[in-house]
Amino acid sequence: KVGSYVDAENYYITLSNRELIEKIDLFKKNNPQYRYFSTDGKGNIYEPGGYTQDKLGEGKIVTKYPSDSATFFSCYFYFADFKASILCIVRLNHTNEKMTNFMLTAVLYDPNGSGGSFNNGDLSRKEEKRFKRKFETEILGNLGVVWKQ
Q1: How far apart are CA 19 and CA 67, in angstroms?
Q2: Of these four, 56, 78, 125, 146, which has the most CB atoms within 10 Å of its CB?
Q3: Residue range 9-26, pLDDT digits in tens
Q4: Cβ proximity of 73 and 102 under 8 Å
Q5: Among residues 121, 116, 125, which one has the least CA distance to residue 85?
Q6: Cα gap 135→11, rounded to integer Å
Q7: Which residues contact 121 (CB under 8 A, 6 or more apart)?
């Protein structure tokens, strides 16, 4: 397998990247219980995620602002009843404005950050099914998007 996020669970959303990210931002604003926060090495609390771009000589850079060179948008959703967050990736397709790949990539359990990636054996089948169902129902269902796998 070659490429980024090759084991992710893929959902294809019939919206442009921009429209999907706007829906995600609005959903998190209106449903703060799904927001995930982390703490950096200095004890500062922040919400991880953003636009990822490859900078020659600098590696991957994540910012909160879109750019034409960004390849992914990452976001987290927190599930309090599971005491876990999920990492999702929007593949930024700058050519097809009618279909966006929204990927469910990993689970992080509180408080130690253990977990694993989807579809590669890190998580049990039961765990994967549980998180996929919750993501499809609580996130995709409440985003009001049309999707297929």
Answers
A1: 15
A2: 78
A3: 999 999 999 999 999 999
A4: no
A5: 116
A6: 11
A7: none
